[in-house]
Amino acid sequence: MPHLLYFKQEVAKKMPVYIIGNFLIYCVINAFTPGPGNILALNTVTNYGWKKGKPLFFGIFAGYYAVQIICAFFVYEVSAFSPGLMHILKYVGAAYILYLAIHIAISRPAGEEREKSASFMKGFLLQFVNVKIYMFGITALTGFIVDYNASLTALLLSELVIATIGTIATSAWIGGGLLIQKIYLKYYKVINVVLALTLLECVYSILR
Questions:
Q1: Can you say whether the dihedral through the CA atoms of 78, 30, 44, 89 is positive or negative?
Q2: What's the DSSP call for residue 12?
């Protein structure tokens, strides 16, 4: 596995400013564009509001950090297995996101009795089948970081930056949801269909 040896033996080099800039631009674009986590957060805040949706939001945030830490170790130690692992994960993720799209399309504004469904584990587990953030974390490292510093510390720090940007982006989607909550209650059918179709585009982009 020569590329594993390459990762471990690579001597850290000074990263040019333009590479750092490109890395951050790549992170912002990936984090703020529609994805399963962002769309679930938007749907939840419009459906449940901030107070009832908090457990799910914190689950999404925690899952983001957990997955990015996994990506750092993955790139550092087991990149030789990435093609097969990502191939399997791609279809598992696509199936779950498809289920999520259907669930959102038929959902209605929540009543008091449905408060418990916006759970921490729902948001947390979503991130573990969210292929977008796996690909985000792995490609950011292989595309911008490992050529300059392939140490585990550098990879972990880079992934923490990615997860923090991702958390800020999801928070922005939540804030947008709070602004449109009253509109949602009136037009929830149309909004849910639009969100579901956006998720279907995510599925298409994973499978194509």
A1: negative
A2: P
What's the token pair of residue 12? 């850290």
- The DSSP result for 57-94, as a single string, is HHHHHHHHHHHHHHHHHHHHH-GGGHHHHHHHHHHHHH
Q: At what angle do helices 36-77 and 131-140 cross, to 10 degrees?
A: 40
Q: What is the pLDDT along the chain (208 residues), one digit of tens a residue?
A: 444 444 444 456 788 887 888 888 888 888 887 788 888 898 888 888 888 899 999 999 999 999 999 999 988 875 545 555 545 656 765 676 687 778 778 877 655 444 455 789 989 998 998 888 988 888 888 878 887 888 889 999 999 999 999 999 999 989 887 776 677 777 878 878 887 887 787 677 657 6
Please report, as a single letter, which amino acid is at residue 140. Answer: A
Task: Read off the tokens for 42.
Answer: 């938007």
DSSP state of 145: I
| Domain ranges within the chain, ordered by starting residue | 2-207
The pair of three-digit structure tokens given for residue 134, joined into one six-digit string:
């796996």
User: CA-CA distance, 205 to 18, in Å (whole number)?
Assistant: 28
Identity at 74, one-letter amino acid code: F
Residue 97: name the closest of 75, 130, 67, 64 by CA.
Answer: 130
Distance between CA atoms of 51 and 76, rounded to whole angstroms? 39
